[in-house]
Amino acid sequence: MRETTCCFTGHRILGDDFKKENLRKAIQDMIDKGVTIFVAGGALGFDTEAALEVLRARKKGAKIQLHLYIPCKNQAEKWSFYQKWIWKKILKSADYVDMPDYDYYNGCMKVRNYKLVDASAYCIAYFDGSIKSGTGQTFRYAQRSGLEIVNLCTVPWEN
User: What fold is seen in the domain 2-151?
Assistant: First the structure.
């Protein structure tokens, strides 16, 4: 299953360079490579955009699945009404949801991020190079794990 799975990792705040059509194309490119399962972490920003694009592609006839790996049961607790509404819509439409029965704890995001990578052979990212971020941690883990990575962020990296 891993060889036909692609995960997403990206920032919660998307820059001016983020284009949905680039995400749509990256997803289609993965489908053309034989990817049938896309996994997302259910966070705001890039995760939400990616999940919505997978659902759109599936609605248009793509034979793909959306799997969600949620880090904790109260992930959306502090989100706005609209953000929660979208999140619940995505959860309801997903083919599989891995949601633990525990509340947030320091480290649960890392556990979720590593699960995303461990399940995948590919990764579509929106990573601006920021060292101290969950996206950065996930991106580097995906690199170390040998995933084929497509980074949609065009902001120059500051390393």
Answer: Rossmann fold (3.40.50)
